[in-house]
Amino acid sequence: MVENIAYACLTKWCEKGKADKSVIRWINSDLTETDFSYLHFEAESNQIANTLQKMGIHNGDVVSVFLPRSPILISSLFGILKLEAMSCVLFSTLGEEALLDRLGNSETKIVITKNSLVRKIMAIKDSLPNLERILVVDTEEHKNDLVLSLAKLMEEAEGIFAYSHQTDSETPAFLQYTSGSTGKPKGALHVHGAILDIIQSFKEILQVEEGDIYWCTADPAWITGLSYGVFAPMATVTTQIQYSGAYNADNWLQILKDKEVTVWYTAPTALRMLMQEENEKFAIIQSNCLKRIYSVGEPLNPEIYFWGKKTFGQEIYDNWFQSETGSIMISNRPGLEVKPGSMGKPRSGIKPTIISDDQRPVAAGEHGNLAVQRGWNSMFRSYYKREDAYAEKFWGELYITGDLAYQDEDGYFWYVSRSDDVINTAGHLVGPFEVESALLEIEEIGDAAVIGVDDELLHKKIIAFVVTRNNLAWDKHLELKSRIYISNKVSTVATPAEFIPIEKIPKNQSGKILRRVLRALYEGKDPGDLSTME
């Protein structure tokens, strides 16, 4: 038995006399701010839990939260967990097709969203037989029997909710969707027992102390934002900053200074974007309170590391984990010498290894598959309703991460690349299949292939090769149409940086796209052996 995540993060601290403690300082894009206490989230999540229970939601049901970062998102998340239902937090930028994949696979019964996003759900409603209600957070009146005002329902709900504070450690808690190189996105299922590793890793790696001000810039729809932007800080009574605006260098630097942030958790892409700014902007943070910076989501290359350390005057600790691992697995941290460019060393209890394609350990310095000995608490328990795909991720007792890496003689791990075709762009994993499928729905496009190539800002940028129907000329109008379509269907993050018209997509005799050939074409290099091309 373990504590229900909602109890560990919220109710327990209200019982321990910290109900009125300001746990989150919420900053809006105009830099206005509001402090939120444990009691606020406790009462609001109780109302939401009562509302959902009245609608028939119970243990094992899926409720999706399709909202931008906001206080009501956090209350909704905990309301779902108190019912021992499964939460599924989704990026508000998802397009219709990507949304359908996730809501359909999860068999979501209720979606909590905002008024401006309802149209996306309604566009795919006929393909979601399990969807029973859409609860809208920013409207005061019910629209019809399907689309209801959550605010109105909460007014009728009690602010007290009785639930079991202890639960079996294997009770499902949340789904985290991740893209694959082929096929639909997969929902990594995590259990309530994951909170043990999330808390332990937060204490061991981020080492936040009483009096620290913590800021994690990740969206809660991303595993970093959920585990380390919601669960870990709230479960450890950490005072944190949440910023609901988009990236804005001036605002970010102002927040770091004015809110006296001491521990900052961000991403390499954010640091690269800051690196593009004029040096004069950073004068504001010369006397900052920062003690250290952490980075995750993609490799932190040495150039950014040295720039960041010089600019902010503090160490930057890179770390590695995945949606599937649920918590930090390998990391640099205080007390461990940093080797710029390295992922660091495993945290306590985690046993990573490098193995060859024939499942043999490799020597120090030799590239291979990064694998982890299974059994940690926050390990995903399945791909929801995709047990076949889940089984493929394990070689015996080893979880195969899909990343290529090597370990040096000192025990440090170094990331090399993905072993599949998934594209890591700005810290988001984008499956080429999703983008290609959407492109093929555009009537002017007869075939398409997508690759990722190196980019100084995004780590990898998305390049789309397209074959038009009937030799139609590719022009700016068609490119704009394609960009808008991908943005609406998949995600703004998945929109290609470049479109390249081509006469024919190179494929092998079984019809698989030869992405290495496309990369060589893009980079002006020799494509190598073409004997397998159809």
Task: Report the count of strand segments.
Answer: 29
Instruction: State the distance separating the first and last CA atoms.
Output: 56 Å
Q: How many H/I helices?
A: 15
- Oligomeric description of these chains: single chain
Please name the CATH architecture of the largest domain. 3-Layer(aba) Sandwich
Task: Estimate what percentage of residues fall within beta strands.
Answer: 25-35%
Q: Give the strand order of the largest sheet, numbering strands 1, 2, ... along the chain.
A: 3-2-13-12-14-15-16-17-18
Structural class of the helix and strand makeup? alpha/beta
Instruction: Characterize the main sheet.
Output: 9 strands, mixed
3D structure, described in words:
This protein has 534 residues and is α/β, with parallel strands linked by helices. It has 3 domains: 37-171, Rossmann fold; 194-418, 3-Layer(aba) Sandwich (Rossmann fold), CATH 3.40.50; 423-523, 2-Layer Sandwich (GMP Synthetase, Chain A, domain 3), CATH 3.30.300.30. Helix content is 30%, strand content 25%. The chain contains 15 helices and 29 strands. The strands form 7 sheets. Strands 3-2-13-12-14-15-16-17-18 form a 9-stranded mixed beta sheet. A 5-stranded parallel beta sheet has the order 5-4-6-7-8, sandwiched between helices. α7 (194-206) packs across α8. The termini are far apart. The model has no long low-confidence stretch (mean pLDDT 93).
Fill in the keyword field for this structure:
3 domains; 534 residues; Rossmann fold; 29 strands; GMP Synthetase, Chain A, domain 3; nine-stranded mixed beta sheet; single chain; five-stranded parallel beta sheet; alpha/beta
